[in-house]
Write a structure and sequence with these properties.
The chain has 468 residues and is α+β, with helices and mostly antiparallel strands. Helices cover 42% and strands 20% of the residues. The strands form 5 sheets. Strands 8, 9, 10, 12 and 14 form a 5-stranded antiparallel sheet that branches. It has a 4-stranded antiparallel sheet with strand order 13-11-15-16, with no helix packed on it. β1 (63-64) and β2 form a beta hairpin. α3 packs antiparallel against α16 (336-357) and α5 (122-138) runs antiparallel to α7 (154-179). The structure holds iron/sulfur cluster (SF4) (2 copies). One iron/sulfur cluster is lined by residues 247, 252, 255, 269-275, 286, 302-303, 306, 316-317. One iron/sulfur cluster binds next to α14. This is Cytochrome c oxidase accessory protein CcoG. Keywords: 4Fe-4S, Electron transport, Iron, Iron-sulfur, Membrane, Metal-binding, Transmembrane, Transmembrane helix, Transport. The chain crosses the membrane at residues 44-62, 93-113, 165-183, 195-216, 338-357. It comes from Shewanella indica.
Amino acid sequence: MVQQARQSSEAIPVTFIPSPQDKKSSHQGGKIHFRSQRGYFQRWRSGLNALLIALFLLLPFIDWQGRQAIWFDLANQQFYFFGASLWPQDFTLLAWFFIAAAFALFFVTLFWGRVWCGYLCPQTAWTFGFAWVEEKLEGSRNQRIKLDASPMSLSKASKRGGKHLLWILISLLTGCGFIAYFVPAKQLYPEIFTFSAGFLDSAWVYFFALCTYLNAGWMREQMCLHCCPYSRFQSAMFDSFTKTVTYDAQRGESRGPRKRKQATELGDCVDCNLCVEVCPTGIDIRNGLQYECINCGACVDACDQTMSKFGYRPGLISYTSEESLTGQTPPLWQRKRFIGYGAALLAILCTMGLDIYSRDPITLNVIRDRQSLYRETLDDGIENSYLLKIRNKTQQDKHYRIEISGALPYKLSTNRVHIAAGEQYELPLTLTVPVAQIDNNRSNLLFKVLEADAPDNSVSQKSVFFAP
Ligand code: SF4
Ligand code: SF4
């Protein structure tokens, strides 16, 4: 058996694929200096990255009904999202939102692989932003490699200093951008940049600024390779129809350099190495699908430009699937994962819709007086006391009416209340019934709170009236 196993393992050809860490010769001292690339996919990537950064920084400056439109007000335990307010008890909605987002990501991944990583992930957006600053101050890829190797000089120190200063500034803006979702943006920015912010606000801003500076400036692809769990389990969502960045080895091999228009027996890959030089994670896509690939498409654009220079058709590296390389286009219903993720996403979105639809704009909590079950009044009545906690969950001040229904003729100490937007009101309430009309020592009743101008908006809760 052992002999048989050894023979069969010897029959399997094994190819050693170097990891980015093994490629120190192509990436100076292990540091990846990737070449900036232009082209169709890079226009999409940089456009989406810019949109993401702009939205992230500008959204906290939008006001809605007199307050910041998106605001996690931790002090008052409320989350404002434009016209909606959420309290801790509504956080199931946020949980549904994150579950739906996860399944939407799985669904998109099934079709286009890791496009999230390449086009919308904040790590990618900020890394490319930092790399852009680096290129503007330190020059092209080759100039940066030379600068790394050169001894320290005034010119090198000024370039490095300028780069780190700009990185720190961007990091500070990012830290402010993040904390501005928790502390009003118009108050936070001036306070941070005039050093007058409180200790906690400053500490959180500096903490997130430091994380941004380290992640996008220093760690870059290391975050994707070693810290991001998504890169590890993404392949579980792929099937043979998933479009990923793929090198067409049949067409490209055997690779080799040549002159333009030179007749050759070689494959279409001219071995220009551009696909490796533009790769932000430092891999060679010609070695096949690798978990390091974030699907950013830089190598696709680089290779298409080389193909065009040599008069070859584009697409030697392209977004393609295993099946389309064999020329098959299967119907969607044959893809089990498509049906699975699609059904799960639909079910979650429906549940979330129902949850939103059934949310009450008022909440009511009736608490009976725990000191005494009842009290006898001087005018031959029996009195019970309650505490009504009524929350106005809308963003407008409202008047509410309180009604009681039950078997006895209850007299209310008050039946109207005014509650400010988003506030909870604690209303002590007394119910009195003439003793002559009580025939039971325990009667069920129902408290109902109605919006005065829109009685359809109401909430009710059962309670009990005790008598001797
Ligand atoms: S860019 Fe294209 S031609 Fe150049 S090495 Fe890569 S695959 Fe070959
Ligand atoms: S292999 Fe291509 S698509 Fe993948 S990360 Fe590198 S440049 Fe981007």
